[in-house]
Amino acid sequence: MEGGIGWFMRKKECVALLLAGGQGSRLGVLTKRLPKPALPFGGKYRIIDFTLSNCQNSEVDVVGVLTQYKPLALNSYIGTGSAWGLDRRGGGAFILPPFVRNGGGQWYRGTADAVYQNLNFVNSFLPEYVLILSGDHIYKMDYSLLLDYHRQQKADVTIAAIKVPWTEASRFGIMNVTEDSRIGEFEEKPRQPRSNLASMGIYVFTWRTLEKYLLRDSQEAASSHDFGKDLLPRMLAENRRLYAYPFTGYWKDIGTVDSFWQANMDLLKDNPEFDLYDEEWPLYSGHSLHPPHYIAPAAKVAASIISEGCNVFGTVENSVLFPGVTVAKSACVKNSIVMPRTDIGSEVDIQHAVIGANCVFKQGCRIGQADMTAGITLTGSHMFFPRATVFNQQ
């Protein structure tokens, strides 16, 4: 139960714990150097920005960020939380890595164990409720409404839920609910789901109830110490009050290269479901400063996000360029995502691709294919492609 901050802080009704330690192995080389929540998204953001912005906009001002895989990137990016308005007296953003036990390292063994290892941190704020969040989802949610719903239902646990396509249901925790949204059954990633109502990985727990279950679970040798696999089924079996909170807005779980590519492409529609420009729900970021982008007179740009510091002399269509990207004259980028500081030379053709940061493409390279059925081509970061290279690797 170590990992607390060691002194009493101001009492808070709700404390948020943001699980941000995921490796994201299905994202391939994109997460070779970064944890999934730190992955750049949407031209100027990191994936974790959206959850942190939700906290700020929902007036949840104590956020513990639980890091694990490649933590330095997130630690340095979040800092004191000032970019999200979380650097405040009596609250703030706190980086919570796995603690060291008996002189040896102990990684978080599961989502429940991650919270268990930080009992002291949570208890230092004496909260009524704990909000468990994920750092690898793209969405907007007012957590204050979720908390209100939890209180109204007198719930022990409230799980944010969304209908997903039946073909994807086996990827999620699936719930069966009664007419009043009380959860009667919860299955973690079932092979044959009986419902398509999926957990979003967003939970509100009444803290004293959760604390008891975490203490019990920590002593169970056979447990995988996971909310979906262990704690939630156990609470259901003991007739605890579990409720589903219906959510109907845009939500994307960034778990694969295809979902990452599609979520970026969703931003490029005339009326996108997920609006980066919504003044009523501002999105905050710890992005670095760059000069304005430049688009040359002969350049052709359509339906694209061109970030700060980009220089575009060629063609960019239906694509997202992160800061510091150069597209030379006669180069073409279509239906693609290009990470920061990549140099695209003349006569280079990039289509249906995700390009890593700090890459160099010399004259005449061909990356990806115009035929979408061939899949998304993915490159790592810091890669050099000599003249006339043809690269179509998924």
Could you explain the architecture of this structure?
This protein is of the alpha/beta class. It has 2 domains: 14-266, Spore Coat Polysaccharide Biosynthesis Protein SpsA, Chain A; 294-391, UDP N-Acetylglucosamine Acyltransferase, domain 1 (3 Solenoid). 18% of the residues lie in helices and 28% in strands. It contains 8 helices and 32 strands. The strands form 7 sheets. Strands 1, 4, 5, 8, 10, 11, 12, 13 and 14 form a 9-stranded mixed β-sheet that branches. The chain has a 6-stranded parallel β-sheet with strand order 16-19-22-25-28-31, with no helix packed on it. The longest helix has 12 residues, at 207-218. The chain is elongated. The two termini are 43 Å apart. The model is unreliable at 1-7 (pLDDT under 50).
Q: CA-to-CA gap between the ends?
A: 43 Å
CATH superfamily of the largest domain: Spore Coat Polysaccharide Biosynthesis Protein SpsA, Chain A
Largest sheet: 9 strands, mixed
DSSP helix fraction: 10-25%
Using the coordinates shown, work out and report the CATH topology of the largest domain. Spore Coat Polysaccharide Biosynthesis Protein SpsA, Chain A
How many domains? The number is: 2
**What structural class results from the helix and strand content?**
alpha/beta
Which CATH class of the largest domain? Alpha Beta
Question: What is the β-strand count?
Answer: 32
Protein name: Glucose-1-phosphate adenylyltransferase
Family: Belongs to the bacterial/plant glucose-1-phosphate adenylyltransferase family.
Catalytic activity: alpha-D-glucose 1-phosphate + ATP + H(+) = ADP-alpha-D-glucose + diphosphate
Enzyme class: transferase
